[in-house]
């Protein structure tokens, strides 16, 4: 009997590739949106988009000793440029800042899964896979905020890094229990996105350290 879906579409390599391009495009768009808030020119749009789109994955690959992904595949930079150009062409819109927040939420979830999955494919220990997922998802945003002069996501009490950690953790655990690559990836990304979405809609945040600040 011929399967309804090509089995090759469910391989870990295909899942990783699909998440990789999606994550790069979304994060590149958030970088371009950050440039839009500062009213930069098109070249700066492209720079913000590229460094945000590939920043986290670059750090991940350097740490796990893998070839830096975008150096060997020009399509990643092309995706960053296309996403940046799309943001430029859309122009100023009143919903632009909210779009940045929601795109960032999607990127955190997708790249949390991707970073953990790529580290797992390289034979890295499960706990470090989760760390790599968080770094992949968050480092590009840290660089974006630094360049844009915005408070870093690491210094905000709202749930951001935690969403990437949840996505990475769910993926690693699901894989450990033998769940198929596609369902594991979508389940993990959905969990991470749901947590970040809750923070955006209902203002969820992690508890702060108790007590008063002393010098």
Structural notes for this entry:
With 215 residues, the chain is mainly α. Helix content is 71%, strand content 0%. The chain is built from 7 helices and no strands. Helix 2 (42-64) packs antiparallel against helix 3 (75-90), helix 4 (96-121) runs parallel beside helix 6 (161-176) and helix 6 runs antiparallel to helix 7 (181-202). It is a multi-pass membrane protein. InterPro entries: Gly_transporter. It is found in: Cell membrane.
Shape type: globular
Q: Could you tell me the radius of gyration in angstroms?
A: 17 Å
Query: How many angstroms separate the termini?
Result: 72 Å
Low-confidence stretches: 1-6
Count up the helices. Answer: 7
Strands, count: 0
The main sheet comes to: none
Encode the helix/strand succession as letters: HHHHHHH
- What's the average pLDDT? 85
Helix content: over 70%
- Beta-strand portion reads under 5%
Quaternary state, please?
single chain
**Pairing-aware structural class of the strands and helices?**
mainly alpha
What distinguishing features does this structure have?
single chain; 215 residues; mainly alpha; 7 helices; disordered N terminus
């Amino acid at each position: 009997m011929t399967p309804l879906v090509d089995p090759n579409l469910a391989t870990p390599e295909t899942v990783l590739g699909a998440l990789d391009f999606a994550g790069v495009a979304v994060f590149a768009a958030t970088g371009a949106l950050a440039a839009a808030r500062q009213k930069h020119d098109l070249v700066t749009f492209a720079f913000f988009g590229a460094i945000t789109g590939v920043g986290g994955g670059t750090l991940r690959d350097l740490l796990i000793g893998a070839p830096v992904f975008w150096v060997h595949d020009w399509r990643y930079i092309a995706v960053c440029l296309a996403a940046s150009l799309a943001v430029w062409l859309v122009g100023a819109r009143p919903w632009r800042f909210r779009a940045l927040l929601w795109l960032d939420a999607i990127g955190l979830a997708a790249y949390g899964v991707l970073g953990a999955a790529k580290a797992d494919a390289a034979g890295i220990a499960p706990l470090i896979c989760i760390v790599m997922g968080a770094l992949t998802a968050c480092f590009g945003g840290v660089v974006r905020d630094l360049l844009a002069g915005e408070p870093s996501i690491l210094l905000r009490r709202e749930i951001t890094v935690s969403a990437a950690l949840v996505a990475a953790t769910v993926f690693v655990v699901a894989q450990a229990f033998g769940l198929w690559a596609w369902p594991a990836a979508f389940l993990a990304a959905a969990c991470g996105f749901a947590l970040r979405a809750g923070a955006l809609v209902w203002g969820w945040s992690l508890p702060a350290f108790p007590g008063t600040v002393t010098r």
